[in-house]
Amino acid sequence: MNIVSIQKRLTGGFRPFSLRTSDGRQYEVRHPECVLIGRHSVAVLDVDREITTLDPLHIVALKDLPARKNPSPKR
């Protein structure tokens, strides 16, 4: 996967997506601030607040996530 493709998903009308790796794992990106893109790596913050560092060569797909059914109430 191309890092530029991931960067495009983070800017200009962000929609939640998941990153799928060559070993079949999937990492959800629910907010653009949950991903850090470096020159040779991609870091993803998961729901348990743990950071996973991925090699972009092993990211094989990006997939849209469905919208949340019960959004939190706005204040």
Description:
With 75 residues, the protein is mainly beta. The protein contains one helix and six strands, in the order H-E-E-E-E-E-E. The chain has one helix at 3-10, and strands at 17-21, 26-29, 35-37, 42-45, 51-54, 59-64. Strands 2-1-6 form a three-stranded antiparallel β-sheet, with no helix packed on it. It has a three-stranded antiparallel β-sheet with strand order 3-4-5, with helices on one face. A hairpin with a 5-residue loop joins strand 4 and strand 5. The longest helix is centred in the N-terminal third of the chain and has 8 residues, at 3-10. It is globular, with a radius of gyration of 13 Å. The model has no long low-confidence stretch (mean pLDDT 89).
What's this entry about, in short?
It is built from 1 helix and 6 strands; from the N terminus they run αββββββ. The protein has one helix at 3-10, and strands at 17-21, 26-29, 35-37, 42-45, 51-54, 59-64.
